[in-house]
Amino acid sequence: MQWHADRLWLASSDExxxxxxxxxxxxxxxxxxxxxxxxxxxxxxxxxxxxxxxLLGQQVLLWCPETKRVQRQFDCPDGVASGVTVVNxxxxxxxxxxxxxxxxxxxxxxxxxxxxxxxxxFSPTSYRDELWCVECxxxxxxxxxxxxxxxxxxxxxxxxREQVAERxxxxxxxxxxxxxxxxxxxxxxxxxxxxxxxxxxxxxxxxTF
Length: 209
Known about the structure:
- This protein is mainly beta.
- It has a single domain (about 1-205), classed as Kelch-type beta propeller (Neuraminidase), CATH 2.120.10.80.
- Helices cover about 0% and strands about 60% of the residues.
- It has no helices and 20 strands.
- The protein has a four-stranded antiparallel β-sheet, with no helix packed on it. A four-stranded antiparallel β-sheet has the order 5-6-7-8, with no helix packed on it.
- The model has no long low-confidence stretch (mean pLDDT about 95).
């Protein structure tokens, strides 16, 4: 999920759709349909997507709204990605299970930089030059821990210094995240609809689309 041009951009693999959501009018608009599309991030170049295919299982695509065609495509590092965003002209992809954050050249798809994270991260998103993501500490047994005891947070990460800049713990299990400078937008695992939460952690549910 990504905030861009006063809209939320969301991808649904179940529906094979990318849509935008206008919180003012509480309306959504279909942008594109693509089988197995999982993440969408609009940029000045076009819309970056994570979808099925490629040699390793998932690939990165750059879709052009004007021509309605894919302009670039390359394999995800480590085969899959749990999200994609753009910060300072570079692509940032996360791999949740491997606890990695990748910096990728958007022109050639070459992995420029790999950062190993302390905990699982997914749904990277950006606001200006800030990189945000969802962090999950699954517990001492990692993926074998009781998922009910996992601890989640909204994380602002400084990739230059390779350190956490801000961590906001949340008492629920977010499935994806976007930030508009004032509010966190997210969905919750096991629930329908969108939620908006300011940085003071007052949460409200917004209309389901």
